[in-house]
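Notes from the pairing session

We agreed to fold both candidates in a single pass and log them together. This is the raw record for the first candidate, unedited. Please don't reformat it; downstream parsing expects exactly this layout.

Candidate A
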Amino acid sequence: MNEADLIKLVIALASAFAGWILAQFTSAAKTWAQRRKVAKLLIEELRDIEKQVGRLQMFYSRQLQIVGAQGVGNTTSTGISNPIYKNYYKDALLSLNQDQRLSFQMIHSLVDQVNTGVEELKMLTTDIQNEHAENGMSERIVKAGGIWGEKVKAEYSHCASLLWQVKYHLGNQQGPDLSPFTKAHEDFCRYLEEADGQADKLIEGGKTIDPSKFDRKYNPEAFNTAP
């Protein structure tokens, strides 16, 4: 091999190596960009979840008033959708720190819990309606009505727990620490206590509401007091 051939070989090898390096860099850049995009979308989804929880809280607030009126609701609600987490969370996993991972997992476990509660309440409501249609105000209806009221209150609390977790993550995106016995943990416990108190107030307030109003689709008073 003469000098000219050697130079050509070196150039060819250098070009191949440079191409390989460029390909690796391009692949890494694409992976980084994809992870960053998914991480951003996960945050946007939390904002969507926050609104969806607000909708569910309105639904459960109405059901708690019906509990106070010693009734059983005849409406149901839909659950919370979280397709980004379900389909793409794994793509962002390596770009998240431990606090972020634990917080996302906690939030979406609560989403599953809330959605399960929606379906369970729907089935319980349907069973009560069927029993009432067949046997009127039976002893079973009275017992099931008490169970229905406790279920509504529990689901209202679950929504409050989810809402706090979402707001906390959105306010502490770089480090949503969920360690026990921290200031955040104390705030969380206090928030749940306040939510339980609000549930009791809604039940108490339902005792003074005309039961016929619960059948109305449009309540102008609700819109007049809306923020």
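Candidate B (folded immediately after A)
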Amino acid sequence: MTDYLGMWYRARARHGIDDTIHFAVLEPGSGRRFEFPVRHREHDGIGGLFHLLRGWQVPLPTMPVSRQSGPPPWWRWLRPVREAPVPAPDWRLFSGSGEDTLVSDWLDRAPTDALRRRAEAAGVSLNSVLLSTLNRAVMETLVWRPAPGRWLYPVNMRGAVSGPRDDMNLSSGFYLPVSPDDHPAVLDQAVRRALRAQRHWLFWHGARVGRWVGQGGVDWLCDRFLKGTPSLGSFTSLGEWWLDLRSAGFSSRALVTLCGPGSPNHPVSNGVMIVNGRLTLSLKLDPSLGADRARAEECLACWRSGLEEWR
């Protein structure tokens, strides 16, 4: 089975857009960072993590699967999507090099547990808390004035679809409009509506158009999509994992982080996951923004403080 989603990352490479998913192991005690890049043309986030775990020869956790056991009838997902138009982000003008903007941070177990308990008490998902606070951090540090925008929201398709490799690109998604003051409950409702409308299946089938048009056709389509309405970024969340990283030679306090590749029309790449009870956060700004590392660190610090202060 061809990785048809991987075709899009090969097409983007023609425009100089890197497809690296930036995995890393952080050692909080020493501050050391060990990089483990993975190509998105070969793996999605979950697949990339399992690719690394197998290479490290550590005990594998259970592979997460979709709540759906198969595709719905075509008439459930082949429907027009009616959304209010979202303006292009009004990015600030930066004069940095645009390089070396990958930054990471983490919350220890106590603040991670406290954040999770607050989300549960409010009746909202942790993902919606993470995305709403990320969106506010972007509004405060990277744009001229807060305004509605949109994020690509991921959906794991494993279990609903299958392939020859469980670590290939088996994810879909949909665009989620987010306003600066949206409460996580508003995002929860919007995500549920999109899932009920099967919008991730529309995205999945559309992304697999390469099976009919080949790489050349995907290249042509990608050229046009890159000129379309830009988004704020792609939200990347891998959920919670308990990993025996000592089996790979790391310390008992080691953490795993990841950050998606991003692109000029999805310039705020990010990644969140909970590893052995601690939440890790990563952020990277596409070079097209011209921001420097200090600006990325400011945005990440704003995101973290927003999580710690969220009630």
